[in-house]
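Please, structure for the following, as tokens.
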Amino acid sequence: MGFSEYLKKDALGVTNTMNKEEKKSEVQNVVGEGTDSFAIVGIGASAGGLAAFEAFFSGMPADTDPNMAIVLVQHLDPDHKSLLADLIRRRTRMQVFEVEDGMMVRPNCAYIIPPNRDMAFLNGTLQLLEPSSPRGQRMPIDFFFRSLAHDQQERAICVVLSGTGSDGTLGVRDIKEEGGIVIVQTPESAEFDGMPRSVISTGMADYVLDPDKMPSQIIGYTSHAFDKLSRSFTAAALSDEASLKKIFILLRSQVGHDFSQYKEKTIMRRIQRRMAVNQIDTLERYTKYLQQMPMEVNALFDDLLIGVTYFFRDPEAFKSLEEQVIPLLFVNKNTGDDIRVWSAGCSTGEEAYSLAILLAEHQEKLKKSFKIQVFATDIDSNAIATARTGIYPSSIEADISQERLSRFFVNEQESNKYRICKSIRDTIVFSEQDLIKDPPFSKMDLICCRNLLIYMNRDLQKKIIPLFHYSLNPGGFLFLGASGSISYLNAYFSVLDRKSKIYQRKEDFHSSQNVNPSPFLLLKTDITTMQPAKKNSIPEKPSLRELTETMLLQYVTPAAVLVNSQGDILYIHGRTGMYLEPTPGEAGVNNIIKMAREGLQRDLTVSLHKAVGGKELVQCPGLSIKTNDHTYTINLTVRPVMSELNGKSENSLYLITLEEAPNLELRSQQITAALNSIVGEDEFNLKDAEAQILTLKQELRAKDEYLYTTKEELETSNEELKSSNEELQSVNEELQSTNEELETSKEELQSVNEELATVNAELQTKVVDLGQANNDMNNLLAGTGIGTVFVDVDLHILRFTPSVTQIINLIQSDVGRPVGHIVSNLVEYNNLVEDTQAVLDTLVPKEMEVQTNSGTWYAMRIQPYRTLDNVIEGAVVTFADITSSINLQKALRLNEERLRVALKVSPVMVFNQDEKLCYTWVYNPNAAFSSYSIIGKTDHDILTAEEASRLSVIKKQVLESGVGFRSEVFISTNGKQLSYNLTVDPLYDISDGIIGITGVLMASTN
């Protein structure tokens, strides 16, 4: 689906016929609480875009939310999964999503276009569509920018970053037309500067910045354009009439155009946008800023003139024009007649060229030649200059069919742009014109004004509509834009197609005979300065000189033909039927040589050749020509046309006069008398004279035959050359077709190259990340001192860490060898291969302690090597040095054995209790208190209540104070009360925290 088709439908597929104000209200109702409170920033990039994206997000504020949503449109390879979302997540604290169809846009989030999709913005959601254009001709950035402009209007913000080609240029125009802002990356900072330079060349960029400087500028702009104070700006500004009038005066004095009669709301929206760009709060301050900065006056003027147009804008309307109006323009027109069209407010010329293409196509259907003239006007001199060049970015492919591109455009491959073909360019005249004050054109067959009336107020519209009526021929047509409906058009025009806004000039208009352009031409003239017209003025009588010259031209002057240096007839005066006759065949440019009658052609050719070569008068009297079986004698004269001003030849034109010679009968009698006198005096021999005359006639006949033969040979050669030319044209068409195919292939390859560049940038970033992760892992393994060996499923060594070489005799060249071929330093352990294979077979890790020849102990662990996809691709063998732990365990066991022996021979009971005074360990207990009956119990469980209470008080005191206690206690066992010496000390953990008590109970010697 193309963008023009997409815009015709809303989310329910209903045709959208709302005007701009209705659309704006609808958007606010639908989105209202959503995007109305935050900005939507569309960012487009192609080759080199990844680095620009990263630089952009690096400039985002680190401590605050930017209160905007960012939508990234990148040229992506349609056949591969994009890594862009993952890469962007590492550069921003915003949430990053790859777009899904219908996804709602939220503030402080970034959205990435998925591969092989076009994306549009509609009512606060992102809609995904199947690309309608073939690969290499897609313009996803233009597509999104246009939808963003259509939906968000003056709230739309677009950013164009690095990339080749011109994708984004057309979309930028829509953004500007709706009052949004355009930010472009500086070409110097872009890896590929094609897209930034293309946008900058349009003159529509508000900011040209490095990517890292863009976020702060956007935040500054939105704080002025979107805050609550700015919403009431228009009403407040309209009340400040003094400042507004000063702005109009500044504009008129500097640029020469008066905008005071344009719609106030439109003017104020443009002024508000410029204030937001310059971050100025009040209209009074902005007026002072204009006075101090003349360049800002020009910038405001450019904003007021934003007239976005593109080829065949609104295709349905142009289709109606092509079918209903264009054929009528040629009705009752003869070959060579004028077809006159006026494109008012043509902007950069796309509309004018579209009209010229439609006219050329219909002329070709009729197989006739007409003089097509398209007059294209605008008050913007820069736009007119662009239109005159006829060069447009390659992104126009989205609006023009391939057939029209190949017929009417030349693809300039070096600049990746299209140039309008010469035949179309020659039919258009571009000029700077202000409809308000400059004279209009007249005798127009069609007037097209699709982007101008909507900006004028009603008073100015009422003056312009009669002007158009005056400029049109009877029955002429008016073609307005989709928003150009004027209520009082009915007084001057009848409706031909209401939907397409096509109207026809009324001829029964009550004042049609009195319509005069002077009221429109003198809009700015004080009416008191106008001279009153003379009443009952009588037309002046022609002078006697004029009457005489008219009669002489009509009855006395000979037949004359004005031709160029090739003999092509430009103008005919008088009756020429005696001398010229039409040539058979197709009608085209008439050439006087081909039309010359028998007996005139040869001398006419020679005389014209002499006149062209010598720039002088050539006379050829007494020529005999044959007309309707009669022979006449004529005089031929060829003279260069001279300028009366400078006496020089004017554009290589020549005037050929043809007149019948005077009566030759008298002259013949005179010659006969002279011959008779000669014969009488000199005894002229008549027979000799007759013989001589006969000889001369034979020579003349021979020369005539020679010239005739030569002429036939030349004609034959000419036919052969025509045939060769046709063959060359056929070859040229084939070459052109091949060239077009190559150009299409080049575009596809260029698109693929951009996509591959994006993929390559993503992969390079991934490689850097993997390298960093690899370095981290190597340093981690080296820092832990754990020896590690990685093997594949065939038990071939893949890699190892340096510390493992102390256990297994490995060197770097052993990578790839089976692990069983390597000699190890392990004592009494030769089952590494078997154990590793067992782990791969069962997927159960295995651990054991092993010792090297040097006496070092290691904890060896063998476990499967799993990928992120849970695929087993080998095993990992690790060796952790546990020598210290083993030695400590040995020492601990030795100490425990010594303690056990010492306690065994001593009448001492040793115990530990936790914080709840439960026994956790008892050694060598009294026979009455075996360990199994004491563990987990308290004194209350094994002693009398009185004895237990007394011991509990002592032990709690030690727990609370952390101070040991020694005392004699009495404990009853087997019905006897015995005396014991009790020692209680706090029990500490590794961090010196009391976790219980330890005590010693020894029988008293008393």
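Residues 43 and 213 are 14 Å apart (CA to CA). Confidence is low (pLDDT under 50) at residues 7-35, 510-539, 644-649.
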